[in-house]
Amino acid sequence: EAQVTQNPRYLITVTGKKLTVTCSQNMNHEYMSWYRQDPGLGLRQIYYSMNVEVTDKGDVPEGYKVSRKEKRNFPLILESPSPNQTSLYFCASSLSRRITGELFFGEGSRLTVL
Amino acid sequence: QKEVEQNSGPLSVPEGAIASLNCTYSDRGSQSFFWYRQYSGKSPELIMSIYSNGDKEDGRFTAQLNKASQYVSLLIRDSQPSDSATYLCAVNIPGAALIFGKGTTLSVSS
To answer: A69 CA to chain B: closest CA distance, Å?
Structure first.
């Protein structure tokens, strides 16, 4: 089954404790991206990757890191989480870096930072 | 500031009616346009993409694009209660990220 898998789905953590949200896709997609969704603000892009070893900032990259060492994986790293990073996070992928709007989304990861 | 605007709703329509969802965008260079559906507590799901002016139909859904007016719409014919969801408009701006609108909540009553 074609899918984008995120883990963990739910996480409560404390300020400053490093965490990683993993994302993996099994569709051999070139393009991968991370979004956060907040009430009243909609979906905002954090980082994206056009291919292996190629990453770039989206609209709200502060406080986040990413890496793309393998085509299928695109982890999101919060080095020192803060309460304003409490949000619903989505990983998404697209077949081609030329058609980046046709996205498959993961199920989401709800993060709470206390 | 590159923006994608949608009425937040809720848009309420009776079962069987046509639901019309609208979206405007600020960047005239935008080339690709998308509609996503998001059920409460779920992830967004692509339902339509449109790349050229005019209408594109897929089952009960029709996407309409007017680049001169910087306007894209989604029509849902014969609306069903299962269509009740938030609909997100997204616009691909060249050299920039895919920009999402904040979404319009649709409620279809039986």
So the answer is: 21
Distance, in Å, from the CA atom of B60 to the CA atom of B13, rounded to the nearest integer, reads 15
Summarize pLDDT for B26-42 with one digit per residue, the tens: 988 888 999 999 999 99
Residue of A31, A91, A105 best to disrupt the B interface, most CBs of B under 10 A: A105
Q: Does A108 touch chain B (CB under 8 A)?
A: yes
Q: Are A75 and A67 in contact (CB under 8 A)?
A: yes
C-alpha to C-alpha distance for A95 and B77, rounded to whole angstroms: 30
Interface test mutation site (partner A, options B39, B50, B98, max chain A beta carbons within 10 A)? B98
CB A70 within 8 A of CB A84: no
Could you please report the per-residue DSSP string of A8-66? -SEEEE-TT--EEEEEEESS--SEEEEEEEETTTEEEEEEEEEETTEEEE-S--TT-EE
The CA distance from A45 to A23, in Å, is 15
Chain A segment 17-76 residues within 8 A of B by beta carbon are 33, 35, 40-45, 48, 58-59
pLDDT digits (tens, 9 = 90+) for B42-81: 999 999 999 999 999 999 999 999 999 999 999 999 999 9
